[in-house]
Amino acid sequence: MGLRRRKMKDLIFIAEKINPPLLKKLEETKLCEMFIDETLWQRQEELIGKVKDATIIVAKTLTQITKDVIEAAPGLKLIARDGIGLENVDVDTATAKGIPITMPMGANAVTVAEFAVGLTLSLLRQIVFSHVPLKTTGEWQRFKFFGKTTELYGKTVGIVGLGAIGYQTARRLQGFGVKILGYDPYVGKNRALEVGCEMTNLQELLAQSDVVILHAPQTAETTGMIGEAELKLMKNTAYIVNVARAPLIQHEALYKALSEKWIAGAALDVFHKEPINPDDPLLQLDNVIVTPHHAGGSIESTQRMAEYTFEDIVRALKGEPVLHYVNIPMLRK
Fold this sequence. Notes:
Residues 118-295 form the D-isomer specific 2-hydroxyacid dehydrogenase NAD-binding domain. Keywords: Amino-acid biosynthesis, NAD, Oxidoreductase. It holds the Pfam family 2-Hacid_dh. By secondary structure, this protein is of the alpha/beta class. The protein folds into two domains: 11-105 and 299-317, NAD(P)-binding Rossmann-like Domain (Rossmann fold); 109-290, Rossmann fold (3-Layer(aba) Sandwich). The chain is 35% helix and 14% strand. It has helices spanning 20-29, 44-50, 67-71, 91-96, 109-124, 127-137, 142-145, 164-173, 189-193, 202-208, 228-233, 251-259, 299-317; strands at 11-14, 33-36, 56-59, 78-81, 101-102, 156-160, 179-183, 197-199, 211-214, 239-242, 265-268, 288-290. It has a seven-stranded parallel beta sheet, sandwiched between helices. A five-stranded parallel beta sheet has the order 2-1-3-4-5. It starts with 10 loop residues before the first strand and ends in a 16-residue tail after the last helix.
């Protein structure tokens, strides 16, 4: 999509592909002038030069909203994260300058939870691994898998991060007859008990679980939280599912654990570099399921996220407090 401009007072600035329902709402309602260049996120210096007139920046995960970007836009009223996570936004600088950051929290919780359970079933029952040879070469590998896959029923599933998404994942797992362990230092025991989750420490969760599902946000505290030592705590029959953020797991440690069979396999929807490099060694492994970071993108969740974000954009343009803020509710004068 090329660059488009409409001459009005305020400016919505978009430097990457965003949620289609949100873009449609913005284009149809013509709230104000719009700058759209979906490849600009790749050229940071050029982005800094062009953001100066922005009133609102709308971004997913690729646009790096650094201190330099924020300071280059003196009229900035809102940073609207079109998705979940703040690893690409300088929250401290935005807050210090009195700029609200919004995020459609909870809008994709059910969607990601269902995806995580789906990946879990795909790993345990080897669904993708048996599908690929049959689909691509017609190879009938029935007895490669027959009697060699395992049920989810009766297993122990560990959930790292029991926020909105982790909570919804636990709710769905209850119907499978599993034991659910949880690790989240910011979630109380009573909240966990609502979904049949027994809270424990990270080391015990890793050691006891047959499947570990990551739902924690990427922060300074969680980055690199799963390394060689942690992976070696896991059973050699266990699987890890990451639908959160790639840097939670140390890349080289994960590759080593998978290639040397410390663990049985992994399902990954997120990567250290996105789009993933086609030469990434993880893609060469036969015990890894990979998907292109779309766990949170169902028809229903993208519509909900669009509604939440659009509402906050309208409110910010009117000078009203936003609803889905993560730092402050409105522009501080």
